Amino acid sequence: MAFDITEYLDKLPPIPLPGMKSNESIGIDIGSASLKIVQLKGGPGKYQLVRWSVIPLAGPVDAEKPDKAEMSPEEKRTAATNLLKNYRGSGKGIPKNAVASVSGGSVIVRYVKFQKLTRKELSKTIKVEAEPYIPFNIEEVYIGFHTLQDVMDEGKPKMETVLVAAKQDQVNQRVEILEGAGFKAAVVDVDAFALESVYDAAFPVAPEETVLIANIGHTQTNFVIIDKGLSIVVKDSLVSGNSINKAIVKNLGVDAKTSEKLKQTHGLLVNPQEKEAALNEGKKEAVGVSNAIASVAKDLITEIKKLIEFYAMQGAERQVNRVIISGGSSNIKNLVPLLSKELNLPVEKLNPFIGIAGAEGVPDEYQATLGVAVGLAMRRPGDVK
After folding, report:
1. Domain 5-241+299-377 classified CATH 3.40.640.10?
2. Quick one: pLDDT at residue 87?
């Protein structure tokens, strides 16, 4: 789905932006714990990986003071700007045009039916048409839309439309980070739609199935249900990798930095035999970590089940066929089999580089982390439908 919030930015004219000499761009996923950067060349079916990077936002000072409270939002924005500025100056051939994204409580995605209008006509009246569906002050959001198909509703011609509203301050912050680092903000997308782009690229002929993608980030999880190649349900949750870290801190009394290491080192013990063996071998730490992860995984499973039930209520034929997980915490050992057992569905970890040449060297532990960045890298200035 081609979507761009910046098409409605007052401070940015409709893309393509002035001064663009090519349609090359770089995808930058500005996370709460790290920056994920991907550059691709080519197009659908012919993508090639040019460069990729994962840059932690925490610097040496944070590493020396593991008990230091997490950086404030302002500190994170400053760190992101400085790190991106250094990155841009570190190599040749890095495009000036950058694609970023937003998500979380500042973004609302609705699937609505508008009266039949041309795109130009709807662009002029979008605030009036959208206001009943937006729980924010309409003057404090940027609004975008994407028309899906024409339908008849109660005998009247209408068009099914994806309506997206993002709080202006959140979009502006993304733009300011990019511009402060010397980039041009070519497109501002939505995390869930970036994941859809990855799915579409991996499966160019949309299979007759419905997939739920759960992108487990540091401070939130993005959910998107894709039905035959089209995002149908989009939701964000505060259940996240950091939720697991906090549970480990509480259970074991360790600091935040150590909790992240323990999460990745031990993972989950998925059956009683494993737990019993760990206890017999004196591995109480592994059991404690597993219990902490399992408590948060239970919340994640509940969220997924609710989404699947909500989707099923939309029609008799609607059911999710499989689940794909991504994000840094998707690397937790045994998370995939636990989810598969509890959801009674096939579950797999995302590889966003399927079909992308030159990506063979990307380590497995980074692949799922780069999902959103890969989707952003697939965007090009001016590709809004």
Report:
1. no
2. 94
